[in-house]
């Protein structure tokens, strides 16, 4: 596997574009297009929130139908959630506009929306934006990057990655982009992720690869404990690499899945570290658990603990908050066996052994916790299972952003 420059336009046959449609923002791009020169197999996973946005319902319909997809239209600023039949109708209008300007099948147009819940989409601005997107699309790396920027809301930077693998002597490329900063919680956390690949792969294998991987990537991140109405992860495969068909359960499938994991984990960590108001990516590793399920429960509980997150923001090695979060997680462990560590580029320090504080250097701990990426390690010493979750610190900035989000 090799990392290369680019995102959704890195794979053969994929194009992208962006434009400022004025849907909510007045000073930036707010619409993006992902387009494949040929129809694609499509896979998707979606929010577990009972309240599902219109684009989520639309995309599930497309993915479940088995129809080939050829375009994705994404807007930021308005989520098209809690908008009733009118909002769902706008998804149909969006798909038909894309079909008109891109000469594709409307039933194969996927849609992503993110932003304020409860507002109706200004459909005239959206359809006008699609015409512009169609005219600007190309396969350049720059267009892919600009598309990644256009889907941001409170994100501070674009999130994209691309890798290549070898399958049957052919180079297969996988690229992706994502957005997410607030309303992020481990349940297909508002996050949107779009992955493109030129792999020849069955729809079954593509869907299983995505579904199996989200449980260890997007579902292991949290910023604020709020599961969005719009969470969507889509993968499109157009087959233009001309590799031997990848089928579920084969060695080639494992190779593909590992590459997809590389993309998804990177994007998930970028989302977590770019949490609203955050100054640090907070990684939590749980080791020595009796099962993977227990390890995940413990890791998520620590990553989601507001008290722990504020301690990270204050560069304070207040390890009691970690043990407390483990204790109410619901997972069983012996508190008198727990070892705790903090680690970053500044070093690694053990702060507790067998559930009791060690005489550690507070100054060194503060130095370690002052880095932009901080890891807490909890070894419960019961078994050999482990899991990793990602979050961020909790600062005053989160309140400032969300107190006036609609304005």
TrEMBL record:
<dbReference type="GO" id="GO:0004358">
    <property type="term" value="F:L-glutamate N-acetyltransferase activity, acting on acetyl-L-ornithine as donor"/>
</dbReference>
<comment type="function">
    <text>Catalyzes two activities which are involved in the cyclic version of arginine biosynthesis: the synthesis of N-acetylglutamate from glutamate and acetyl-CoA as the acetyl donor, and of ornithine by transacetylation between N(2)-acetylornithine and glutamate.</text>
</comment>
<feature type="binding site">
    <location>
        <position position="153"/>
    </location>
    <ligand>
        <name>substrate</name>
    </ligand>
</feature>
<feature type="binding site">
    <location>
        <position position="407"/>
    </location>
    <ligand>
        <name>substrate</name>
    </ligand>
</feature>
<keyword id="KW-0055">Arginine biosynthesis</keyword>
<protein>
    <recommendedName>
        <fullName>Arginine biosynthesis bifunctional protein ArgJ</fullName>
        <ecNumber>2.3.1.35</ecNumber>
        <ecNumber>2.3.1.1</ecNumber>
    </recommendedName>
</protein>
<feature type="binding site">
    <location>
        <position position="190"/>
    </location>
    <ligand>
        <name>substrate</name>
    </ligand>
</feature>
<dbReference type="InterPro" id="IPR002813">
    <property type="entry name" value="Arg_biosynth_ArgJ"/>
</dbReference>
<keyword id="KW-0068">Autocatalytic cleavage</keyword>
<comment type="pathway">
    <text>Amino-acid biosynthesis; L-arginine biosynthesis; L-ornithine and N-acetyl-L-glutamate from L-glutamate and N(2)-acetyl-L-ornithine (cyclic): step 1/1.</text>
</comment>
<comment type="pathway">
    <text>Amino-acid biosynthesis; L-arginine biosynthesis; N(2)-acetyl-L-ornithine from L-glutamate: step 1/4.</text>
</comment>
<feature type="binding site">
    <location>
        <position position="179"/>
    </location>
    <ligand>
        <name>substrate</name>
    </ligand>
</feature>
<keyword id="KW-0511">Multifunctional enzyme</keyword>
<feature type="site" description="Involved in the stabilization of negative charge on the oxyanion by the formation of the oxyanion hole">
    <location>
        <position position="114"/>
    </location>
</feature>
<feature type="binding site">
    <location>
        <position position="402"/>
    </location>
    <ligand>
        <name>substrate</name>
    </ligand>
</feature>
<comment type="subunit">
    <text>Heterotetramer of two alpha and two beta chains.</text>
</comment>
<keyword id="KW-0028">Amino-acid biosynthesis</keyword>
<dbReference type="InterPro" id="IPR042195">
    <property type="entry name" value="ArgJ_beta_C"/>
</dbReference>
<feature type="active site" description="Nucleophile">
    <location>
        <position position="190"/>
    </location>
</feature>
<feature type="binding site">
    <location>
        <position position="276"/>
    </location>
    <ligand>
        <name>substrate</name>
    </ligand>
</feature>
<dbReference type="InterPro" id="IPR016117">
    <property type="entry name" value="ArgJ-like_dom_sf"/>
</dbReference>
<keyword id="KW-0963">Cytoplasm</keyword>
<keyword id="KW-0808">Transferase</keyword>
<dbReference type="Pfam" id="PF01960">
    <property type="entry name" value="ArgJ"/>
</dbReference>
<keyword id="KW-0012">Acyltransferase</keyword>
<comment type="similarity">
    <text>Belongs to the ArgJ family.</text>
</comment>
<feature type="site" description="Involved in the stabilization of negative charge on the oxyanion by the formation of the oxyanion hole">
    <location>
        <position position="115"/>
    </location>
</feature>
């Amino acid at each position: 596997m090799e990392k290369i420059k680019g995102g959704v336009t890195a794979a053969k046959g994929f194009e992208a574009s962006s434009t400022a449609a004025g849907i909510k923002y007045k000073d930036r791009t707010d619409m993006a297009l992902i387009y494949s020169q040929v129809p694609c197999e499509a896979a998707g996973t979606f929010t577990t929130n009972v309240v599902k946005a219109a684009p989520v319902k639309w995309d599930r319909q497309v993915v479940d139908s088995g129809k080939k997809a050829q375009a994705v239209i994404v807007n930021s600023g308005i989520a098209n959630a809690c908008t009733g039949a009118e909002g769902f109708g706008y998804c149909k209008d969006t798909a038909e506009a894309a079909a008109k300007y891109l000469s594709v099948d409307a039933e194969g147009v996927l849609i992503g929306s993110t932003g304020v819940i409860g507002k109706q989409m200004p459909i005239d601005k959206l359809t006008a934006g699609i015409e512009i997107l169609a005219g600007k699309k190309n396969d350049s790396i720059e267009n892919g990057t600009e598309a990644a920027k256009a889907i941001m809301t409170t994100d501070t930077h674009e999130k994209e990655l691309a890798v290549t693998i070898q399958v049957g002597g052919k180079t297969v490329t996988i690229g992706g982009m994502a957005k997410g900063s607030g309303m992020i919680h481990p349940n297909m956390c508002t996050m949107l992720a779009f992955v493109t690949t030129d792999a020849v792969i069955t729809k079954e294998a593509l869907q299983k690869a995505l579904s199996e991987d989200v449980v260890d990537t997007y579902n292991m991140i949290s910023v604020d404990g709020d599961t969005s109405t719009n969470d969507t992860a889509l993968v499109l495969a157009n087959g233009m690499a001309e590799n031997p068909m990848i089928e579920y359960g084969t060695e080639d499938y494992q190779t593909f899945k590992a590459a997809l994991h590389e993309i998804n984990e990177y994007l998930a960590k970028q989302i977590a570290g770019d949490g609203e108001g955050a100054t640090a990516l907070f990684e939590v590793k749980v080791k020595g658990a009796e099962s993977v399920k227990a390890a995940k429960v413990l890791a998520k509980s620590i990553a989601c603990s507001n008290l722990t997150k504020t301690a990270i923001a204050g560069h304070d090695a207040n390890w009691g908050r970690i043990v407390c979060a483990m204790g109410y997680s619901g997972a069983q462990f012996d508190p008198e066996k727990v070892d705790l560590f903090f680690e970053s580029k500044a070093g690694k320090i053990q702060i507790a052994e067998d559930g009791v504080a060690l005489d550690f250097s507070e100054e060194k701990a503060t130095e370690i916790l002052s880095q932009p990426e901080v890891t807490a390690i909890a070894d419960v010493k019961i078994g050999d299972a482990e899991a990793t979750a990602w979050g961020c610190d909790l600062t005053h900035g989160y309140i400032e952003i969300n107190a006036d989000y609609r304005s």
